[in-house]
Each structure stands twice: as C-alpha cells, then as structure tokens.
C-alpha cells in the first residue's frame, strides 16, 4: 500500500523514507503519523494497522486506525514499556478482507526508533598534579553516547565564570592535567549527552597538587549477585533499559520515567523549581532548624517518615534543581537556599546556598531515603521568607532508591495437562517501589547474551505460561529482568538449561530373530 509513516515527538517530525536510519528518542511515548498518498486506494481500505517488532523480535499488531479520518488526525500513538529498539511497519485491510502484505512475515520496517531514556553515567575523579597543576580522569558508560558532545569546564574558587578545560580528547575513559589561570581550589564539571539527547552532568572539587579523598558523584556500585541464580550484565538492547527512571527533563543523573515536561513547584514569595541539568554547584552549608516546640529531637534519616505518593522517585542522589524567581525587586536576589528535611518535616537543615543565583542548582543528598525540599530566596538587602521550621510542608518530595529488586527465578517446568506444550515460568520479585508492567522474560539460545523476548512489560504475578512453538530452539535458558520505578533493575538467568528437544525414533531396518517356527 502506498502509505508512509514518520515519527513525531512534540513539534518535531522526522521525514519519511529513512527506514534504514535509526532515530534516537528519549521519550517513551510518541506519535507516528501516516499518509495515504492515493485517494483511490483510501476508498478501498477498511483499516490501517500498525505493527511493531521489539528488539528484533516477532512482528506484533499494535493498533489500528480507520483510513477515512482527516489527514491532520492520521496518526498512531505508541508507548514503549521499556527502552530498546522498535521497528514499525504498516499493514492494510481492504473492504474485501484482503491484507497487504498478505502475510505478517512479509512486513518490512518502515521506521526504526531507538528509545533511550537513560542518562549517561559519568564517574569523575581528581588525579594528583605537581605544584599548581590539577587533573581529572573520567569514565563514561552509555550505549548510545555522542562523544563529540563531551565537555569539561572548570571554575576557580572565587570566580564567577567557568572556562573550558584544555587538552580534552573525547573518549569514554580519559584523563587530563592543566594549570588553571588562577590559584585556589578548582571545581571541574563534566557533561556529555547521548544520541537521544539525554545529558549527564557531574562535578568534583580539585585541590592543586593533591588527589581527593573521595570518589566523584555519579559512581554507582552494582548489587550483589542473587543466590541460586546468575546475575548478568545484559547485552544491547536490554542493557539500555530502563529508567525507566524519565528523561533529561528531570534530575541531571537520573530519569523520572514520565513522559512530557517536568512538573514545576511554585512558592508564593520564593522560587519555583523543577528537576533539571546542573550548570554550577551550590555552596554546601550545615545549619539546622530545631523543632518549634518540644520533642525528641532529630531522628535518623527518614526514620518514621512516610513516602508521599506524589514524590519524585530517583536512583541517584546527585541532583540538579531548576528554579525560577518571581516578584524580584530592584535590589535583585542575593542568595537562594536549599533546605532539606529527612524526617518528614520534623527538622530542617540548610543543604546548600547559591550565592550567584542562576538556575539550576546542583546538590548531592546523603543517600537512600525520602527527602523534603524547599527553596528560600533573599533579596539584595538580605530580606526574604523565613526558612522552614518543624512541621512545615516541603515544596516537593524526593525519594532516593538505589537498591535493585530482589528476584528469585525458579526452575522452569514443562507444562502438563491443560498446559501441555507450554513452559511454566515462575519467579518471586520484591521491592517497595515495584510498579505495573515491571517484569520482562527472555530466552537465551546461544548462552552469549543474545536474548530474545518471551514477554515484556508484564505484571509481577509470579507465573507466566509460555506457549512453545516450532521457532523455539531445542535448548535454552530463561532470563528474567525486573525493574523498579526508580530505574534500578535486576537480571537473573536460570541455572538450568531447558530441554525442549523432541526425540523422534526412526526404523532403519527389519530382520528376523531366528526364533520363528519352521
């Protein structure tokens, strides 16, 4: 059929005719407009169908649309349940019940989209130098990285402007040393984006001629291996899953997993802010506000604090807050303060100050837990709203969750009775932040990470019946992946090889035994 499709995200539409070129997209929901070029053909059609093949798997009918809608409304809306590569094709059904193409196996990809909502992971560490010399080394991890976007900048303490780090060679792992244009402590910021325009940003302080005592923000240690099963680092495209933790509209090193623009939070006389990319670090402070009335004093981080339903769920404690300041007077704004509560508003602590108010504001929280965040601004004369005190509600809530789900995969069993010809896959997955459609199942035929989907984005029911067909290999292992809403995920591979072979005896010859009567 003379029908063309394209990809539309917001107001951006990618041209047709680029089926062999992959389009990288950080949104998990997008429109696929279609055009019927021949008006005569349109009159013969009953339905226009959109098919999708996920990660090189089988073609599946995703949705359908009538052909007689106005041209401006001819589009499909696709929502990906996880990151990966998606192929799209059009199939039509005419009014006589005939399909074009006739068989699903004849479908060819008209559009290829790589959904990538993962922000590049950056590990930035200072290295020792001589005299006034400073240096850093970096390690970047991302499957779709755009190395040409790598940028390192530095700012000497006391200066207002940043400048490029000289001698940077764009590569995944590298190091560089240089002599700053002024003495003093240096803040180095590294930023890079991938082909889907997800941007990762981290920063670290460097003392001239000395190495640091701590690693830079952005490094994350993996969880321990599950007992009784094998935890693996998946091969593309599965390694690029999730985040499911939402795109770069959010906190700089973590995605929210939500499509569309980030929410903003308004304060009557102070700033409003939304998660975003960091451009400069704020100055850390440690000052607390005691409860307004008597009490037991500060509790340990988040002890007894609930987890509000409207919180931002993140898997990285390195955050960047975008904000705007309303009702500025002639004296301007002298400082923006970030106040944090770890115990549900019982006590508040000044986390950091931005003495050169310019959104966004960068900070790092203390690790896992539920945090309430509030911004307070002061004008050029030092006048502003009071800081939050005990029982004041925060402007927004954030939960940092770095722990992957606990997953146990049981030995798959060949079905019997009503499940004859099927494989029964059972598992147990637990995590306080598991959402819907959090489980994906795969099988590994070659035992080298070349996984093929069994079912993706299913609910955590603990049981799945897989109907085996002729295309299933005789021997394979089952793989399960479970992701929580913060973007942490666990992958477990079955220790047992499933034997799906069907022995078929064949008679080769017949001969007498010599025991018959004469």
Summarize the structure.
The chain has one helix spanning 39-44, and strands at residues 3-5, 7-9, 12-14, 22-25, 29-36, 45-54, 59-65, 75-79, 84-94, 99-100, 111-115, 121-127, 134-141, 145-156, 163-164, 173-178, 186-194, 199-206, 230-231, 271-275, 283-289, 312-314, 318-325, 333-341, 348-354, 361-364, 369-379, 396-400, 406-409, 413-414, 422-430, 439-444, 451-458, 463-467, 475-483, 489-493, 498-499. It is an all-beta fold and 518 residues long.
Main sheet specs? 6 strands, mixed
Q: What structural class do the secondary elements suggest?
A: mainly beta
CATH level-four homologous superfamily name of the largest domain: Immunoglobulins
What is the CATH topology classification name of the largest domain? Immunoglobulin-like
Radius of gyration: 28 Å
Q: Report mean pLDDT, rounded to a whole number.
A: 76
Count of strand segments = 37
Low-pLDDT ranges:
9-18, 211-281, 285-305
Principal-axis shape equals globular
The domain count comes to 4
Helix content: under 10%
* CATH class type of the largest domain: Mainly Beta
Tally of alpha and pi helices: 1
Report the CATH architecture of the largest domain: Sandwich
Give the termini distance in whole angstroms. 75 Å
> Which strand-content bin applies to the residues?
35-45%
Describe this protein with a few key phrases:
single chain; 518 residues; mainly beta; Immunoglobulin-like; 6-stranded mixed beta sheet; 6-stranded antiparallel beta sheet; 1 helix; 1% helix; globular
Structural write-up:
With 518 residues, the protein is mainly β. The chain has four domains: 3-115, Immunoglobulin-like, CATH 2.60.40; 121-206, Immunoglobulin-like (Sandwich); 271-400, Immunoglobulin-like (Sandwich); 406-499, Immunoglobulins (Immunoglobulin-like). The protein has one helix at residues 39-44, and strands at residues 3-5, 7-9, 12-14, 22-25, 29-36, 45-54, 59-65, 75-79, 84-94, 99-100, 111-115, 121-127, 134-141, 145-156, 163-164, 173-178, 186-194, 199-206, 230-231, 271-275, 283-289, 312-314, 318-325, 333-341, 348-354, 361-364, 369-379, 396-400, 406-409, 413-414, 422-430, 439-444, 451-458, 463-467, 475-483, 489-493, 498-499. Strands 4, 6, 7, 9, 10 and 11 form a six-stranded mixed sheet that branches.
